[in-house]
Recover the amino acids of this structure.
């Protein structure tokens, strides 16, 4: 099968973020059996070696130059918003459009060059022409609903620009409805997101395919490090992660320190926001920025906390911590799409008091930590590997998913 994959986010190395992790692992699996052409953009911090390493996994890597950044003036922003209202495409998606890429895809499809097209994030839909679905299967790998995410960020106060997001919210719902109609098949990562997309009444099949973990990259730890060491992971320039780190670091961790004076909190993730960096001014808190390997930090932690109050879709950081054998205390948002309550594989907490209780119990009970660690690893091995997710994706692409 000849597959054209569109990923305007360069999907390598797979440690860069959630979108990159999912895209890379899917193409890595599919590339073993099928002829993949990947279209992506070059970004300044990608090395020639990384390009060569990615190219080794696929048949044809097509790299294009990233468009120039949009004009930052108020007039230009107002003009882009007006175009959003009139044309229906958000500015951050329209910015990614390239006539060079469009012409290349049009030419290849005119020559019947592919059996299926996949968009490995909704922003790639900008290159899809609606009439193509009459001749070829076109799959949107949505990850999570943009409308639902924006609505949730407004409701929880996580958004950095509430005025803009209130204006955008109804437009994003219209946009989501419009772009979904360009595809023959839609893929989401959790049942909750499936419900949201189903509410659009699109008359399109919607398939839930979860994320996975590379079990070699995140091996099960050999022993419990003991102590009172907490860890929070994730890209620390993403608003939901910034909010979670600040919420825990300022409102929960000081209470824990009074109870456990030796408690420490390590915040591990790339590009930390200034508000996250400032957390390191508080005793016991360390902010690392990007690290070479996340699993080393996970193995040193007593407990991993995922205190998300916003953000939808299944969370790689939760899956990775559970795979590594670190007991997890997480919110409903941090555990979306996962069955962890029976048997207990992660401890659910949403209110401050619930976090204090869960973490205290785990600090004091080594057997309870061992139970969560064992159950979590077993759950990941059974339900959340990239082999399982990729094989489900493959069956969908070739039309045999039941």
């Amino acid at each position: 099968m000849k597959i054209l994959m569109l990923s305007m986010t360069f999907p390598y190395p797979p440690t860069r973020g959630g979108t990159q992790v999912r895209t890379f692992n899917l193409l890595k699996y599919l590339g073993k059996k099928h002829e993949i052409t990947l279209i992506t953009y070059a970004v300044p911090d990608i090395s020639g070696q990384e390009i060569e390493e990615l190219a080794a996994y696929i048949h044809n890597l097509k790299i294009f130059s990233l468009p120039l950044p949009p004009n930052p003036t108020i007039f230009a922003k107002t003009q882009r918003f007006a175009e959003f209202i009139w044309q229906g495409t958000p500015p951050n998606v329209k910015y990614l459009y390239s006539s060079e890429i469009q012409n290349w895809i049009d030419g290849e499809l005119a020559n019947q060059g592919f059996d299926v097209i996949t968009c490995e994030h909704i922003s790639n839909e900008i290159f899809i022409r609606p009439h193509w679905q009459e001749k070829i299967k076109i799959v949107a790998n949505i990850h999570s609903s943009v409308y639902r995410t924006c609505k949730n960020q407004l409701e929880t106060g996580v958004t950095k620009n509430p005025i803009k997001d209130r204006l955008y919210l109804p437009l994003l719902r219209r946009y989501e409805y419009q772009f979904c109609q360009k595809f023959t098949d839609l893929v989401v990562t959790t049942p909750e997101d499936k419900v949201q997309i189903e509410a659009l009444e699109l008359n399109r099949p919607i398939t839930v395919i979860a994320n996975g973990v590379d079990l070699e990259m995140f091996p099960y730890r050999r022993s419990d490090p003991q102590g009172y060491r907490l860890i929070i992971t994730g890209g620390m320039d993403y608003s939901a992660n910034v909010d979670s780190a600040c919420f825990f670091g300022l409102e929960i961790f000081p209470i824990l320190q009074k109870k456990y004076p030796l408690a420490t909190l390590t915040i591990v993730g790339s590009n930390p926001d200034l508000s996250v960096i400032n957390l390191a001014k508080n005793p016991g808190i360390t902010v690392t920025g990007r690290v070479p390997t996340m699993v080393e930090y996970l193995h040193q932690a007593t407990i991993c906390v995922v205190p998300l109050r916003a953000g939808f879709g299944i969370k790689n950081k939760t899956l990775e911590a559970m795979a590594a054998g670190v007991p997890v205390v997480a919110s409903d948002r941090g555990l979306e799409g996962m069955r962890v309550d029976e048997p207990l594989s992660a401890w659910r907490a949403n209110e401050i008091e619930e976090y204090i209780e869960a973490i205290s119990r785990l600090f004091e009970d080594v057997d309870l930590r061992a139970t969560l660690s064992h159950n979590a690893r077993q759950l990941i091995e059974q339900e959340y590997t990239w082999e399982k997710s990729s094989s489900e994706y493959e069956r969908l692409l070739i039309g045999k998913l039941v």
Notes: The longest strand covers residues 35-42. The chain has a mean pLDDT of 93.
